[in-house]
Amino acid sequence: MSEPLRVPVGFETIKKTIRFCDLKTKKEKRKSDVSKNELMLQMIAQAIANGLLFKYIIADSWFASVANMRFIKQKKKIFIFDMQSNRLAVVREADRQAGNWTRIDQLPIPNNRPVQVWLKDLEFPVLLTKHHFTNKDNSTGERFLVSNDVGLTDDRFTTIYKKRWSVEEYHKSLKQNVSIGKSPTRTEKTQTNHLYASMLGYIKLEKLKFANKMNRFVMKTKIYNQALKAAFKELSSLKSMACA
Asked: How many domains does the chain have?
């Protein structure tokens, strides 16, 4: 099976225009007047307005707020979010009416079997699944995933959520293949231009990936090796001329 095309469809820069004093360090700091959650909602709305066809919105626990869930459902889209274990929920409607909220890591739900629950402060039910996992150091943990698609099987839950890993691969490629973090610019406009140019470079690498059936890192290594060979060849030529 061939790899899917993975390209950015929009980006926003964080503009930290508000200056404030950190009471602990007594140092001046800056923050943005727009939160990351607000930016995400704006970008979702813009993607819909642009006619982009998509069904699922996948994100980690940072974006799993009730407000985000409500917004996505109103837009007739489906979310799959990672959830922190201290989020409050109930399995039964009666417990919801009575306010008997329980941490999701203490709910009596089976592993790898999605269960419909009510999250605190959310007016519609969602599907919750729990996964046990073992790390490379043999430590164990739990992951909780939640969605407004109440018909999801556990396999579909996992398969769809794994696609979020492509975001990490995208960020890694931006840093290592197109040098997004090595901009010498200092102004807002030039920094934004550098970010945009880096993303265009990433998109061109994606196009080459499909044309040559090689991933971005293999292509970078191949280009780098050819550049080294050309450099050594030129160096050898210069040495020969110096000895003549």
From this structure: 1
Position 70 pLDDT exceeds 90: yes
pLDDT at residue 244 above 70?
no
The whole domain housing 161 covers 35-165
CA nearest to 39, candidates 63, 21, 22: 63
Helical segments of 58-187, H only: 66-74, 93-98, 154-161, 165-176
Given a cut of 90, whether residue 48 has pLDDT beyond it is: yes
Q: Is the pLDDT of residue 243 over 80?
A: no
* 222-242 tens-digit pLDDT: 888 888 888 888 888 887 776
**Which residues, at least 6 apart from 94, have a Cβ–Cβ distance to it below 8 Å?**
none
Decide if 87 is inside a domain. Answer: yes
Q: In angstroms, rounded to a whole number, what is the distance separating the alpha carbons of residues 112 and 117?
A: 15
What is the model's pTM? 0.82
Question: Maximum Cα–Cα distance for the chain, whole Å?
Answer: 94
Spatial distance between the Cα atoms of 154 and 132, rounded to a whole number of angstroms: 13
The rounded distance, in Å, linking the Cα atoms of 167 and 108 is: 33
Residue positions counted in the chain:
244
Which amino acid would we find at residue 124? Answer: F
Does residue 182 sit within a domain? no
Please count the other Cβ atoms lying within 10 Å of the Cβ belonging to residue 118.
21
Indicate if the pLDDT at residue 58 is higher than 90.
yes
Measuring CA to CA, which residue among 78, 38, 44, 43 is closest to residue 58?
A: 78
